[in-house]
Amino acid sequence: MKICLIAPPYPLEQAPSPPLGLCYVAAACEAAGAQVIILDYIVSRYTPEKLRDALADFKPDVVGATSVTMNFPAAAAILRDAKAADPGLITMMGGPHVSFDAENTLNRNPAIDLICMGESERTLAELLPVIGDRSAWHAVAGIAFREDGNLHVTEPRELIRDLDSLPLPARHLLPLSRYQALGFPVSIITSRGCPNRCIFCLGRRMVGQKVRHRSTARVVDEIEAILDYGFTRINIADDLFTANRRRVADFCREIRARGLTVGWSAFSRVNTIDEEILVQMRDAGCDAVSFGVESGNSDMLRRVRKGITLDQARDAVAACRAVGVLPHASFMVGLPGETAETLADTRVFAAELGIDHGYHLLAPFPGTTVREHIEDYDLKVLSDDWEQYDATHAVVRTSQLGPEDLSGFVEDCYRPIRDSWAASRARYDAGTCSSEEYANVDNYHRMQLIYRMLAEDLIERYASGIPAGDDPITALAARIAGSADMDKSMVRRHIAPLVEKGLVKQEVSEGAGRWYWTHNNRVDRVKEAIGW
After folding, report:
1. 55 and 25 in contact (C-beta within 8 Å)?
2. 84, 99, 396, 424: least buried by Cβ within 10 Å?
3. Does domain 185-360 have CATH number 3.20.20.70?
């Protein structure tokens, strides 16, 4: 059996990691005996023509996609294109959005045959052997599908108790060199489950309220594999990494015992952290911790069942400062009952903490308590345009504040930062900036270049047929700069390290060169070493 898995487009500006959930799914499919490819449209341009060519080349039996709410429309459109290219394909989708909106998804998207709900690794192990026999689907727990015009939802699947029984994520199927060019951290999980009850979060609904842990050895084995691919930084994406102090200590001890050098960050809660645990994390390579504080108003924190206090947030930030770990706080705008006064409290509290922080506009995703019980809250959902559910668009209102008030608050909070950034860029252009400003602005240009190279397939579209010469990188830079309307010297300066690291290579034939992204630089290095 052949399975093609799709990573749908996702904004590169939001610093995506290699898609972890999809890699777990791919590994489960491989373990079930399937031949698997991943088409990653996060780090490459999507077109129906590219998809059609890939399907014609691979000839899969099944095409599956994952999505979160904001990129669900794109994922659904890709499955429609796949079905149009080959009506005989079985199409399926998984992920948090469709897990809690299965009926609407299937009713409104006839090109989607089946939905895997919740954790899907065990589901796929049972489903794939019978995927061609639709009558057998009824016996597979954890899926939804149509039959004779009717919606069928099978019994819920139990959560996976032994996470160590899962194969390691199949990152080898990803175009890893492209992610290395971006330089973002690689996400891992050490556990699944969230014991908290925040009304705006899907964590406990998707992976359960009881935290299930992977063994420390298994997690650190995975980190070693990530480092072997050439990455140097990870992010621990657990809903609550610091849920169990003993396990955090064991993890940090194992990192040190193996002598691993890796920078990492984690998500935590302000009521689960102190100097003692932070010292252990710091000594194992942790240099940053993110806290969801959400509001600077105590009543609001109680209303959304956050389960923390403002004093706990103050203490957590102080502990980070004391041990030299960078704290970051996120705040949510547009929570139920939000008023001008509660927003003012949040802004004052964020300033008091004096740390890096960000604001996110509430997006009431399907499956969250706030959406499913919205009649209990001072909140109204204004749109089901899922592409707007990206935390940067106001899709709700309260009795006191409309979407323009919520968006205006965020804009006003960010205005000093944007004004400062604009001034730095002006000084950069004038040649009067400081060395720190130069580094920041130049890195911004580097990232914009790489975003465009990936999202617009600039290497693939414009880097063939370049005459081989003494300085092929300059010739490549000239092509890219011309198509991207960027400064040629800047483009060359930022492309050269990609070539030096082997992320982009040139193949020469009959005096002309073809530049291309390598799929996996580690594999390429091994092939070269053994002469393959």
Report:
1. no
2. 84
3. yes
Report the predicted TM-score, pTM, of the whole model to 2 decimal places: 0.94
- Structure token pair of residue 198: 């925040």
SS3 assignment, position 97: helix
For residue range 478-506, list pLDDT tens digits in order: 999 988 889 999 999 999 999 999 999 99
Taking the C-alpha atoms of residue 9 and residue 95, their distance in angstroms, rounded to an integer, is 15
Q: Which two tokens stand for residue 88?
A: 């005989």
What b-and-e string marks burial along 493-502, b requiring 16 or more CB atoms within 10 Å of the CB? Answer: ebbeebeeeb
- Is residue 440 within a helix (H) or strand (E), and if so which, with residue range? helix 435-455
Q: Which helix (H) or strand (E) holds 247?
A: helix 245-257
Strands 191-192 and 212-213, sheet pairing: antiparallel
Which residues are within 8 A (CB) of 476 and not within 5 positions of it... i.e. 6 or more apart? 463, 466, 495, 506, 515
- Write the pLDDT tens digit of every residue in 361-385: 999 999 999 999 999 999 999 999 9
Q: Quickly name the fold that domain 2-153 has.
A: Rossmann fold (3.40.50)
Per-residue DSSP letter, 171: G
**From residue 291, how far is each of 49, 77, 236, 263, 391 by CA, in Å?**
42, 35, 13, 18, 17
Yes or no: domain 457-530 corresponds to CATH 1.10.10: yes
Domain range annotation of the chain: 2-153, 185-360, 457-530
